[in-house]
Amino acid sequence: MSPSGEQAGSVVRLGGRALSIVDELGRFSLLAVDTARVAFRRRFPLQDVLVQFESIAVRSVSIVAVTALFTGMVLALQTVVSLARFGAKPYTGSFVGLSIILELGPVLTALMVAGRVGAGITAEIGSMAVTEQVDAIRAMGADPVRKLVLPRVIACTLGVPLLAVLADILGVFGGLVISAQSGISPDFYISTVTSTVTLADFLKGISKTFAFGWIVASVGCHLGLGTRGGTMGVGRSTTRAVVISSIAIFVADFFLTKLFLVL
């Protein structure tokens, strides 16, 4: 193939890829709109939401707790060593508190939920899609969005903020443990955290997690419903769900942080 032919082929492939991304975003947006529309209908699926909340939030407590605790401990360990060079070791609590409350607590919680829950949602709905159970729901006159998507989106959107609060507490506590071992008084550590971290800082960090939870559940449901190709297709969709959710969390974190700094 001539150089001009190769260039033309590259342009065609690039255009096809761009159109595929636009189509994917369009279908995702339509699903988000349908979910919002169904949420305001009568006969709210409260029982299904509670079941999904137990599966998504309650069963994620252990993995979020362990992650947050050791994140706070290793952050304090590194901070103590770094600040000791400048004679500022006693103020480890200020650095750990702000880092956990503003960023590490919310983001790591969302990533843990994306890895555990996002993959599970995609695999569950994807398996139903490839075995035509979703089509069967439509054939019976029910709405798959109301039955499958809405409960998961609501449960994840409300569950991730609660998990983030737990992560904040355990992360700061982990920093307290290491700081106490490094010769910093627990009372002084707590006083530096409470004097540095304000209620506005806490609310900014927690507010972002509502968006993170919505992203995890919406991406998982979208890719699950679009799964094709049997068990191999389910595996591909599950992997894509984790990757896309994780990237979207980081992107959303940046723009939300910029927004909060402006407000």
How would you explain this protein's 3D organization?
With 263 residues, the chain is mainly alpha-helical. It has one domain (27-36, 45-257). Helix content is 86%, strand content 0%. It contains 9 helices and no strands. Helix 8 (199-225) runs antiparallel to helix 9 (230-262).
Helix fraction bin: over 70%
**How confident is the prediction overall: mean pLDDT?**
90
Taken from the alpha-carbon principal axes, the silhouette is globular
* Pattern of helices and strands: HHHHHHHHH
Total count of strands? 0
In the residues, how many domains can be counted?
1
- The end-to-end span amounts to 56 Å
SS strand fraction? under 5%
Largest sheet, if any?
A: none
Q: Tally the helices.
A: 9
Radius of gyration: 22 Å
Low-confidence stretches: none
Structural class: mainly alpha
